[in-house]
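Predict the 3D structure for this chain.
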Amino acid sequence: MARSGDVGEIVRRALAYPYAVPRCSFVQLGRRTLELPRGGPDLAGRAPLIAYGSNAAPEALSRKLAALPALPIPVLRAELGGFDVVYSAHVSPYGAIPVTLEPSPGTVASVHVAYPNAEQLPLLSASEPNYELRQLSGLDCRLDGGAQLAEADAFLSRHGALSVAGAPLALPSIEASGRCFTEIDQAGVLELARARLAPEQPLEDFIVRCAGRGGIAPLPDLTPL
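Done. Predicted structure below.
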C-alpha cells in the first residue's frame, strides 16, 4: 500500500503529463535548462529524434538522463506537418495515459526534435517500454530557424492510438493548427478510462492502482457504454 505522500506524488506526476515544455529551443544539461549556444549546438554524432511528449520536457529529460548529468542534449523547437499528437492506447507505468504520433493530413503539430548522442539514446529507449523506435521518412518537419528535416527517429506506441467512438483524442496542451481530432486533457482522458474500467473507484485510486500494477496495455476503446 502506497503511503499518503507517495500517493500524492503518483497522482501529481500522472496528471502533470506531458509536463512543462518550453516554447523555444533549449539544451538540457542535468537538471539545468540552458539557452542554445551562440551559433547553434554541435549536432555531430547525434541523430534527430522527434520529441512530442515528455521527451520534450526538461523535468522528464533530467529524470531519464540522470545517469549522464554532464552530457548535454540539444532540443530544438519544430513544426511537424501531416501528424497530430494523440493519446496512446495504454496507461504508463507511472499512471498517465501518454501520447503517440498519428497521421493527420492538413495538421501541423508543434513538437521538438531532440538530438541524443550514442550514450543518451539507450537511456531514453529504456524509459519507453510501450514504444518502438522507428525511423520516419518523407517528413515535413521545419526546425526553429528554418532548417527542414525529411527523416528523423520517433518513439511510436506499440498499442496504437487510443480510440473513443472510433477516433483518436488529442492533447490541448500540445498546440496544432488544422487539428481535426477532439481535444481532452489528461484528467479527462484518465476519467474516461476509470469510468470504463473501474467505475467503482475514485480517480486518484484508479491512478495509484494503475501505477502499482505497472500500467495497463493495451486499453480498449473508451467509448462510454
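The chain is about 20% helix and 30% strand.
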